[in-house]
Design brief:
alpha/beta, seven-stranded mixed beta sheet, three-stranded antiparallel beta sheet, globular
Length: 393
Amino acid sequence: MNSQPVIYLDNAATTPVAPEVLAAMIPCLEGACGNPSSHYSVGYEAKERLDAARAAVARVLNAEPGEIFFTGCGTEADNWAIKGTAYKLAKKGKKHLITSAFEHHAVLHSMMALEREGFEVTYLPVTKDGFVRPEDVAAAIRPDTALVSVMMANNEIGTLQPIREIAAVCAQKGVWCHTDAVQAVGAVPVDVKELGVQMLSLSAHKFNGPKGVGALYIHKGILPYSFMDGGGQETRRRAGTENVAGIVGLATALELAAAHLDERAAHERQLRDYVIGRVLKNIPGTTLNGDAGRRLPGNANISFAGLEGETILLDLDMHGICASTGSACNSDSLDPSHVLLSIGLPHEAAHGTMRFSFGPQNTMAEAERLCEVLEEIIPRRRAMSPVWHGPIK
């Protein structure tokens, strides 16, 4: 058993709950434990905390409180935005949707489910640097297009998409625009008015909040069909007793992230660039995936030629380092990452890719330790590899 402290470098998968967030949540599980729909003092107190959290989220996103709807996770928010729009606008003859080839599976699988119901979906290609081009969106829009859904930041390679430009194209064509901003919120500035999107998804556990709670921004001018049936919660738009503790945790975490956004980003960028620079310099046969500059501050996605990512992952774990080979939501699959294939990586390179994602709690000493371990394990594993013959000159 490794006695070294764990170095957690998988913040794109999930993040540790901040102490301030936990402290804000505890009263909602104790004294203010009522159902916010109940008409007595404990219920009223829960409702007040719920309303305050909604207002806080709206302030950070530059939205109105009535435009924020809480969900169980980012996946639910994506499903609601996509399916709610599709079912509503299908009644107007609009049964065509547009997305990109490297979206999160919450978006892709929602689109595929709609295809099985008779909807048509266009999957836009992405550039080798990891971007969706606004001109491709414009070319794909048809008179029967209901929705364009493009993520704000890719969850594997971290590239930041031109959402404002894509939303402007949609506005010009009269098409609703949704962005899955689960990886972006808390990491980069997010202003829904500036972006111009009609819907935006987020998830608390990506920015040091609790798991099991997310939110969907819905512009007040649109009304996608409700996704959950039941009671009258969330102004009759999303049924189910609200997770008050989780929602308060989400709002607290979002406020903390927004208050320290610049310093967090600078810190994570420093660690990211150190690791990328040192690994590419000292370890032959390594490649950075995605544009070097227009990416999330904490994301480093690197391919190691001649090796399997799972092997590297296990070796790192033996040294007390947590990282990933891609999206945690698809970690049980042996198939290569659809994100990496979409930017043109061959299967063998996609299989040998690692994602290191940094958070505010990580240190330069941890980044240095990661590089030291990689510089030890990669040559050793390659010496045993039947497919490694050295980098091509």
